[in-house]
Amino acid sequence: MIIERGTKEHCQEAIELVRNFHKEALSEYVLKIDEDNLIKFFDKCVAQSFFLIIDGKCEGIIAGQEIINPVSGEKIFQETIWYVNKPYRRDGVYLFYKAQEILKQEGYAAMVMICLANSKTEKLIRLYERMGFVPIEYHFIKRL
Fold first, then answer.
1. Domains delineated in the chain
2. Residue 8 belongs to what H/E stretch?
3. Can you give the residue ranges of the N-acetyltransferase domain (predicted)?
4. 5, 51, 88, 91: most buried, per Cβ within 10 A?
5. Strand partners, 99
């Protein structure tokens, strides 16, 4: 099992993971996030992403982007996609830990994770809390 920064070598496999993430987590959301636009976004942040490589194949990703806190000037990693193929879901936690380790080494001050409101929300909140994350805000949305 290898964790690496996003590379062109595994990009096509990672795009399949983005498609799976869209189907599993976003297809019913009020924002109606288009799969093609999600892939375009991912293309822009491949280099800042983390790939979980098992037996030479990308089986999981954490994708996001660097943002600079406008008040403190600190570098923050904002996650947008965290997805691991079903047979390897337990390895997704290893991916998560390694991503944090790498970000810290690269001088990031914080990592922000998204928690979508769906059937897995409570489980994900408990995982984030066990890993030392604290909630910072809740968002509500209504389609106009």
1. 2-130 (3.40.630.30)
2. none
3. 1-144
4. 51
5. none
